[in-house]
Amino acid sequence: MSISLNLNGQTHEVDAEPGTPLLWVIRDELKLTGTKFGCGVAACGACTVHLDGEPVRSCQTFIEDVEGAEITTIEKMAEDTVGAAVQQAWLELDVVQCGYCQSGQIMNAVGLLRENAKPSAEEVDDYMHGNACRCATYQRIRAGVLRASEILEA
């Protein structure tokens, strides 16, 4: 089936079977590999992208459900004010250890800061809870989100 996708501000025509996860279209068809495969059951958050500005798990978002929606991946985040602030905070605080989960962490952090520009540490923990980090850098992730909030406030 042919579907027109609005991905990172560009239109892409893709052929995919119904039921194909958006993750595989992004990675295999469009060759954007920043979005990671983690678990395949929407439990870890490594595959998080934004769908009409909201964080979603692309491993469980099917291609037929996204036609006409605006899809944003980690590759576009540096051009976004909130995304750039999160990435700056991540670098300042050396949040990343192995880095595998970080695109999903950043995408989710951007979603949080768009909803709540000045979250408390507890609100960060609650919002980011569904994003797993195998290296357990949760304290640095929390600090990164809080620092990004400060950057945006300045």
Proportion of strand residues: 5-15%
How many strands, what sense, and barrel or not for the largest sheet?
5 strands, mixed
In N-to-C order, the SSE pattern is: EEHEEEHHHH
Q: Unreliable stretches, pLDDT < 50, 5 or more residues?
A: none
Derived structural class: alpha+beta
Helix content: 25-40%
User: How many alpha or pi helices?
Assistant: 5
* Counted beta strands: 5
* Broad CATH class of the largest domain: Mainly Alpha
Widest sheet: strand order?
2-1-5-3-4
CATH homologous superfamily (4th level) name of the largest domain: [2Fe-2S]-binding domain
InterPro entries: 2Fe-2S-bd, 2Fe-2S-bd_dom_sf, 2Fe-2S_ferredoxin-like_sf, 2Fe-2S_ferredoxin-type, 2Fe2S_fd_BS, Beta-grasp_dom_sf, Diverse_Oxidoreductases
Pfam families: Fer2 (PF00111), Fer2_2 (PF01799)
GO molecular function: 2 iron, 2 sulfur cluster binding; metal ion binding; oxidoreductase activity
Protein name: (2Fe-2S)-binding protein
